[in-house]
Design brief:
The complex is a heterodimer of chains A (337) and B (323).
Chain A lengths: L12 E3 H15 L3 E5 L17 H5 L4 E3 L4 H13 L3 E8 L7 H8 L2 H4 L9 E6 L14 H5 L5 E3 L4 H13 L4 E6 L6 E3 L13 E4 L4 E5 L2 H15 L4 E5 L2 E3 L3 H11 L2 E8 L4 H12 L9 E5 L8 H7 L3 H13 L1
Chain B lengths: L4 H26 L15 H7 L7 E5 L3 H7 L3 H8 L23 E5 L5 H15 L5 E6 L6 H13 L3 E7 L2 E2 L2 E2 H4 L16 E5 L3 H16 L5 E6 L17 H9 L2 H11 L5 H24 L19
Parallel strand pairs in B: 1-2, 1-3, 3-4, 4-8, 7-8
Antiparallel strand pairs in B: 5-6
The chains are: A alpha/beta (337), B alpha/beta (323).
């Protein structure tokens, strides 16, 4: 904890890629149980397709940092086995859609073995995976599938929106005694943000209030935070005071922070890139209606992607994801309610 | 071949435990005292009995829903196993796993899976941990002939070979994948030939011959311990009680079934020990008697044990109990 590197090594602004690289480096350094593997993650294969793992195999050796064959079922299952044996594997499933090919190991094994063994074993592994539309990657390389994992008891789902949280949440995810699905938003990988202080831990299951307000609570995570913040700013100039919550951990939900905020504002809008139906927005909305009925001044609004596969055509892709106008419209609807 | 009489008798003891335990499970289920899907292991006793005498306590196994023989051979205590199958709080997993998910790390039984093929990737991970830590422990991945047709088998053999993992893949080929005969669902006659596709040794052996299993396991385990990588053993066997208790077995040709039962490995091995002068009738009877009493105690313990508390529904989801 609180391990601070010489300032010369730290830039004031870094990308999420750099922050994650630091997190993995620091975790490998701090704990010999940590191992890293996935497709192309070793330096000989380029240090990961976006270089998140660059330099790690060189520094920590091929035994602890290794590239795998394209065999998600085998290597995610191997992470399950290695964690049961006491290691702390961090595996990279290159894209979130590829988690579909190893779903059995994630949902039937990683998430359930603590329970099914009556607590005799546990699976302290992290699955790093990236996703996000906007790069023309189409229907099988862009989906936000967090709802699948939120719907599976026994696995935590984390989705940071900035480099500092990415660093601190990754350190916590690796230390966590249970499996964590760690979702990285690909299109904002290169966006520069405040450099994390190396050694910090951002607790799992704890949301952050990014902006205080009194009229409406805007709830998001990962990509949607990048859209919510400018919208909240704009609405502020129009006299609507927005509170903004970055969930950071999607499951388990930090209901304490959400409830405290919505109790104050009486209105909530949930924004996520995942498709609308049966998404996390539905769960948050349901809970708010159950718990704050009578306090709410308007029905909770949801802003999400359209209920269709991610399309390729730029026009369709832009139409698939919500627009800033849609977020504003949802807020106005809440305000009118 | 095991030259010491003691090892031969140890194998017998494990086989007797597996056989008697299976007979008793079925009797208790049929008497209506326990309700569960039970995948009988009768007929497959030799395989884990002869492999496990090659293993230390630190060596690990992963097994499958048809895995009670693997668990008992590795040393999962009979009492705890029965209590788990009875769903009681005293079971290995507090009654939260059941017959398809028995876990007992203390004896090296790390995972039991109900998903065909899923044992192999996990076994690779257990072996990976030993490799990373520089330990010489090995992992046995048990699975059936049906699992050799699922992707996880092929991915795991490739990964284990590329990484030279200390794992032994043991295909317990009982000739039927659920109700589908080997010849109707598998592209090869001998599953062991698939090992060549992944650059590892593969052998087909008579899984009902304890000496053949003992020898093959010895070679594969030594190779794994030496850091030379994985092997595939296809041990041919037969399941006497169909896929699951209650299965009529109509899909098994009558002559094939009769021949398999006539070649029952348990009495055959007993006769081998007596005829070869490795053990006396009286000695083996005494072992059988001890085991019968052990099972009596286990049944009594299980049925007298408390049911789990409903609070268990909030426990073991995560490290911290749910609120």
């Amino acid at each position: 904890m609180n391990e601070v590197r010489p300032p010369a090594k730290r830039a004031a602004k870094v990308s999420t890629i750099q922050a994650l690289n630091w997190a993995l480096e620091d975790a490998l350094e701090a704990d010999p149980r940590v191992i890293v593997f996935g497709e192309d993650v070793a330096d000989r294969q380029g240090g990961g397709i976006v270089k998140v793992t660059q330099g790690l195999s060189g520094k920590f050796g091929d035994l602890r940092v290794r590239s795998t064959p394209i065999s998600e079922m085998a290597f995610v299952g191997a992470a399950v086995g290695a964690s049961i044996a006491g290691l702390r594997p961090v595996v990279e499933v290159m894209l979130m859609n590829f988690t579909a090919v190893c779903m059995d190991q994630i949902t039937n094994h990683a998430a359930k073995l603590r329970f099914m063994s009556g607590g005799q074993t546990h699976v302290p592994m992290v699955i790093r995976t990236m996703t996000g539309s906007g790069f023309g990657t189409g229907g099988q390389h862009s989906d936000f599938l967090e709802a699948w994992y939120c719907h599976t008891p026994g696995i935590k789902v984390v989705a940071p929106s900035n480099p500092t949280d990415a660093y601190g949440l990754m350190r916590s995810a690796i230390e966590d005694p249970d499996p964590v699905m760690f979702i990285e938003h690909m299109p904002s990988y290169w966006a520069q943000g405040t450099a994390p202080e190396r050694g910090i831990f951002v607790p799992l299951g704890r949301a952050a209030v990014l902006r205080e307000g009194t009229d409406v609570t805007l709830i998001g995570y990962s990509r949607s935070i990048h859209d919510i913040l400018p919208v909240a700013e704009k609405l502020g100039t129009e006299g609507v005071s927005c509170e903004v919550i970055d969930l950071r951990t999607v499951s388990p939900l930090d209901m304490k922070t959400i409830l405290a905020s919505v109790r104050k504002t009486g209105r909530a809008v949930v924004v996520h890139e995942a498709v609308r139906s049966f998404g996390p927005g539905a769960e948050i909305s349901a809970r708010l209606h159950e718990l704050l009925w009578g306090v709410l001044k308007a029905p909770v609004q949801r802003v999400a992607s359209k209920d269709c596969p991610v399309p390729f055509s730029k026009v369709l892709e832009q139409g698939f994801i919500y627009s800033h106008e849609e977020i504003m419209a949802a807020v106005r609807k809440a305000m009118a309610g | 071949m095991p030259h010491q009489n003691r090892t031969l008798v140890d194998i017998y003891r494990k086989m007797s435990l597996i056989k008697q335990n299976d007979d008793r499970f079925i009797a208790v289920i049929k008497a209506g005292k326990l309700v569960m899907p039970y995948y009988s292991v009768r007929g497959q006793e030799c395989i884990p009995a002869a492999i496990s005498v090659r293993l230390s306590k630190q060596d690990t196994i992963v097994t499958i829903y048809r895995g009670v023989h693997d668990m008992l051979a590795k040393g999962v205590p009979t009492k705890l196993l029965w209590a788990e199958l009875a769903g009681r709080v005293t079971g290995t997993c507090k009654g939260k796993g059941g017959p398809m998910h028995v876990t007992h790390p203390e004896s090296g039984c790390m995972v039991t899976t109900g998903i065909v093929g899923a044992s192999m990737p996990i076994a690779c991970g257990l072996a990976l941990a030993a490799q990373v830590r520089g330990e010489t422990h090995v992992t046995i991945a048990n699975f059936g002939d049906g699992a050799s047709n699922i992707g996880a088998f092929h991915e795991s053999l490739n990964l284990a070979s590329v990484w030279k993992l200390p794992v032994v893949f043991v295909c317990q080929n009982n000739l039927f994948a659920e109700h589908t005969a080997l010849r109707d669902g598998t592209s090869v006659v001998d599953i062991s030939v698939r090992a060549a596709g992944y650059g590892m040794p593969g052998v087909t052996i008579d899984g009902n011959d304890p000496l053949a299993v003992y020898d093959a396991a010895g070679v594969a385990i030594a190779r794994a311990r030496a850091g030379d990588g994985p092997s595939l053993i296809e041990a041919r066997t037969f399941r006497f009680n169909g896929h699951v208790v209650g299965d009529s077995g109509d899909y098994i040709p009558k002559a094939e079934y009769a021949a398999a039962v006539a070649a029952d490995p348990f009495p055959r091995y007993r006769l081998y020990l007596i005829d070869g002068g490795f053990a006396s009738d009286a000695e083996l009877d005494s072992i059988d008697g001890e085991i019968a009493r052990e099972i009596d105690d286990a049944v009594e313990f299980a049925l007298a044990s408390a049911q789990p508390d409903l609070a268990e529904l909030r426990r073991d989801i995560f490290a911290d109990e749910l609120v």
